[in-house]
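[job 4471] stage=fold_predict status=RUNNING
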Amino acid sequence: MASDLSTLSERVLGDMTARYLIDLSGRVGLWLYPTAMSDLAQRRLTVADESWVRSHSKARPAIVVEPLVHVKISGDDEPPQLGTGRTLLWSSSIDRFRLLDQRVEANTVVTTLYDDTGLRIKHRLSAGFQGLTVQSETVFENDSSSPVRLELLTSFSLSGITPYATDDAPCRLRAHRFRSVWSAEGRMVTESIEQLHLERSWAGNMNFSERFGQVGSMPVRGWFPTALVEDTEAKVVWGARLAIPTSWQIELGRRFDDLVLAGGLADREFGHWTKTVEPGQSFTTPQAWLTCVAGSVDEACDRLVSVDVPAVEAQPAMEQDLPIVYNDYCTSWGEPREDQLLAIADRIAPLGVRYLVVDAGWYMPMNSSAHWATTLGDWRAHPSRFPNGLAGMAAAIRKRGLVPGIWMEPEHVAKDSDAFAETDHMLTRDGKVLTLGLRRAWNLHDPYVKAYIEDRVIGTLAEAGFGYVKVDYSETLGIGVDHPDGLGEGLRRQGEGTHAMFDRIREALPNLVIELVSAGGHRMEASFLQRAAMSSYSDAHETIEIPIIAATVHRLMLPRQSQIWAVLRQDDSFQRMNYSLAATFLGRMCLSGDILGLGEGRLSVVKHSIKLYQKAVPAIKYGKSRIYGEIGPSWRHPRGWQGVVRTTEDDGIVVIHTFEQTPEEFSVLLPGPDWRIVEVLTPLAVSIGGDRLKVVGASVFDSQVVFVRRDAV
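[job 4471] inference complete, writing structure tokens
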């Protein structure tokens, strides 16, 4: 350690150790490492050992204390060394702050920094669920006599990556991120730090950054708010997951030997965000969860999504056995009607389905030229579709032993609704009502809007007796909406309003099952997932890539929350039906399609699948997933095969799908020996030898679900 760097403290949080560093100026930084791997490398102090630059580098440091919190205050100098426009990390605002104190409050490490004007920054770090993560947040307090305008305030900033290398760790660090677009959520992208062009410069102190994230009100649009860094030699992985419903950013930054992983709200440059903190006021960032594990990327992802478990366990009691859903959308295509829904209820009730969800279009007249997407917002059922009203229809569904559900998009109104004209209560940009194609968005802080949602949304759900609501959100607000602090802060405040809306629904209807959806999976982010029982994993409903998407999101959400559709058609082959149904074992089973037209043979396939799915519930809830296979670069045109192994200590399932050019024979690695096959879903031949599950004779677009058990030794 350099002579002007020292260890301020070391705190054990779960199975990790947080090492706080401090330099002579009082700047504090944070390293995180597995407690079981505390034998850290002896770091070089300067780059004088690099012969090619020796004549210039004897005084150049190799490591410094990288800030625990990055902040940028309006009026302070911009980041130097080619940083401006690329990053706001390392702004001159950081130099104003130094350590005041550090203490532990209720198992939370609180590190307080201060400046000479009365400003304080409090960074809070505490152990997460089961000690597998740490929770990080930052509080900015203004005890000065003047307002302060923030342009950046990070929720977390990890440095010291990697503490297991004596130098700048050439060719051993890799970054893992997850891309997301409509109907193709969760593609993992792995790049070396060299590929990201984040090698330190020969001189050091140049502000390099790979800044990424999303701008708007769909937090999983473009990227998931999760990132990991892997030391491939030490076999240690650092990970971060943000809980932000609107614009966010994560940065991989570098100046010297160490890599920095930082993130939080999207800043002024990236997300148009500023925030004025008046004297006597404070501002708290959204939460981030961090982890560090001696293991694999999948293990780090398991730890990051584990933080959602307490909230999911607190969902309504009827959710505990992961009931099966039937949604009418791919049956009626936005044209639901009471007689058809009751016929569906009669068909599915004996199968073991519990939820019957009425999707979009229930509010528009029959035989109308309008479309469900142009008429949403008034939330009044049309009597031509529901002659007995929603309450009568819901009661009839309950009489058949099912729980009635309904689709809504409470935050938006569409152009053919009466509510579309309520412009005094809509969000604006540059003083004009913001129109998003077909939609406008309510200002969720407006008392009129709160009353409207209380009446038309919560009131409708309560009065009709629905036990399930599918809450959609199908357009983004983009860069933001009007607010005295600017568009980005207006957007952040709208996100707070969305959280408050979900919380009010839960408060009013504590036993209501809430499904999250946002044009598929655009809200599969921690702060939303912790407010819902489940989420639509994607809008991929009848495509061959369904199992690929369903598998990859295991790294980003709990499978017990991932609703996967099997759309069944009366002309489907048995192989096609099995392919669709097998994919639902990767999460929550949701059925749709031609259930009324299925013959007895196909209906028996569905019934058998449901019976086996119910046996798979413990593995889906409590297992760990590992994904194997060779699918090629294309999800839409996959080649090869995929195997997902999800096991607890002694039980589990293996979900197999094959694609074009599948090999005649392949095998899937099991977690150790002594497993045996208990039951299977389809005729595809499988066997176990040692720690391998072998598949033989698979055809194109084949599938299998294998139940496995390990006998006690």
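[job 4471] summary: The chain has 14 helices and 40 strands.
[job 4471] exit 0
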